[in-house]
Amino acid sequence: MSDIPAKAAPVPSPETAGYWAGAKRHELMIQQCNSCGRHQFYPRVLCTSCSSRMVTWVRASGQATVTSYTVVRRPVSEAYAPDVPYVVALVALKEGPTMMTHVVGIDPEDVRIGLSVEVAFQDWTEAVSVPVFRPVG
């Protein structure tokens, strides 16, 4: 058994359950408004554009562009120590919304604004998978 503590696993709420269920299936789910057609992330009970409550879950393309990032060199807790250095980034999804994520599969020093990335998933536990992004190609 490892002496490294477990990472803090997310706890789905009624608003985020569709997102986490999709992640477990390795599908990136975001919301789309049935009234105005706009996509949104993070999950909410109403559309942030037109205030409609008619939002549904749709599968996102998983294609995105890095718009901002930082390289974390000091872990927030011992659970994350094996991961440093790692990249925390804002990525603009092809559908429009921006989400915060980790960029993996690339040396942190090679990440740059404008980098094209695609979704991948890390299985943290049997119940929780987390979307991350890796360079396209």
User: Which structural class is indicated by helix and strand composition?
Assistant: mainly beta
Helical content class = under 10%
Radius of gyration: 16 Å
Shape: globular
- Number-wise, the strands total 8
* Assembly state (oligomeric): single chain
Distance between the termini: 36 Å
Strand content: 35-45%
Largest sheet: 5 strands, antiparallel
Instruction: Describe the strand arrangement of the main beta sheet, using strand numbers.
Output: 6-5-4-7-8
As residue ranges, the low-confidence spans are none
Number of helical elements: 1
Domain count: 1
Mean pLDDT level: 95
SSE string: HEEEEEEEE
Task: Describe the protein's architecture and organization.
The protein has 137 residues and is mostly beta strands. The protein has one domain. It has one helix spanning 17-24; strands spanning 29-33, 39-40, 55-59, 63-72, 86-93, 98-103, 116-123, 129-135. It has a five-stranded antiparallel β-sheet with strand order 6-5-4-7-8. A hairpin with a 5-residue loop joins strand 7 (116-123) and strand 8.
Key features?
5-stranded antiparallel β-sheet, about 140 residues, mainly beta, single chain, globular
Question: Brief description of this entry?
Answer:
Helices cover 6% and strands 37% of the residues.
Give the topology, please.
Layout: H1 17-24, E1 29-33, E2 39-40, E3 55-59, E4 63-72, E5 86-93, E6 98-103, E7 116-123, E8 129-135
